[in-house]
Specification:
This protein is α+β, with helices and mostly antiparallel strands. The protein has two domains: about 80 residues, no CATH class; about 130 residues, 3-Layer(aba) Sandwich (GIY-YIG endonuclease). The chain has nine helices and eight strands. Helix 1 packs parallel to helix 4 and helix 5 packs antiparallel against helix 6. It is globular, with a radius of gyration of 21 Å.
Length: about 280
């Protein structure tokens, strides 16, 4: 007797065609691939996205059959990250790169390293930028509204001297709210990638504070004006712009007690587009 195909088969087929180690997707992206709306439990219960093998887990068996598993799930932002369980199919090598992309992309650019070796890097959640190994810490996703789009806000009016102080170069906004919990309170260099491309390199004496409410996570009114921390405004707005385009944004860190030489080397060698200095 012929078995009826699972209604989640389109998701399995889509994942089977991807040649990346991670696929950050919105719930809407998944629905477009499936051709129908996800059940209510998928939007309200994290358990729906668990990697299970029960008889009633047809959706989980679909991504597992393609060699994938689910990673971080953000019910508020309505996003999920799929992570590969086995190496992607080999691709024809392209021209050599400079190490500024994520591991699976690098696998197609460096014929001297096998796909399996590059996937080992991806499984360990590390990547090399300019000769230095960085640890993948978390995907970055702005706080989203009920429609799934990033929420935007303009804090400038709350500054008591707003009428007499001009905005700085990046103070116009709009801005978003971020949450990157669990960062170590340590010195280090951090890298932001968008769609697997390095876009920004920075240093912090305290990584947790740099990405906290006094840093990138919440733009304080004072920082929008001259004399404020304009870098916070620049990076936060750039993240918002990338999120508007449904691009995958990731944070990578390297803890070190002497971060400045590494930052200078990476900026000089890789020229990240979000960095103002060269």
């Amino acid at each position: 007797m012929e078995t009826k195909p699972s209604k989640y088969a389109p998701l399995r087929r889509h994942l089977s065609t991807l040649n990346v180690c991670r696929w950050p997707a919105s719930f809407v992206d998944v629905e477009h691939i499936l051709g129908f709306c996800l059940p209510k439990s998928a939007r309200t219960h994290r358990q729906w996205w668990q990697n299970q093998s029960k008889d009633d887990g047809r959706h989980a068996r679909a991504w597992q059959a393609a060699g994938w598993r689910t990673g971080p799930v953000d019910l508020r932002g309505q996003t999920v990250v799929f992570e590969r369980l086995r190496p992607p199919p080999p691709q024809r090598p392209a021209s050599p790169g400079d190490g500024s992309t994520m591991p699976c992309s690098a696998a197609t650019r460096r014929p001297s390293r096998t796909t399996e070796t590059m996937y080992a890097d991806c499984a360990a959640r590390t990547v090399t930028f300019g000769g230095q190994v960085f640890e993948h810490f978390a995907p970055i996703a702005p706080e989203a509204g009920p429609d799934g789009k990033p929420m935007e806000y303009m804090p400038q009016h709350r500054y008591r001297e707003a009428q007499s102080t001009p905005l700085n170069r990046y103070g116009q906004g709009p801005f978003c709210r971020l949450a990157v919990p669990g960062l170590p309170a340590a010195q280090g260099v951090y890298v932001i990638t968008v769609a697997q491309k390095l876009v920004y390199v920075g240093i912090a004496t305290n990584l947790r504070q740099r990405w906290g409410s006094s840093g990138y996570a919440r733009i304080q009114p004072r920082n929008c004006f001259k004399g404020g921390q304009s870098t916070n405004c620049k990076v936060n707005h750039a993240i918002l712009s990338a999120a508007r385009g449904h691009l995958a944004i990731d944070l990578w860190i390297h803890q070190t007690g002497n971060p400045r030489p590494l930052e200078a080397r990476l900026i000089g060698r890789l020229a990240p587009p979000w960095n103002g200095q060269r």
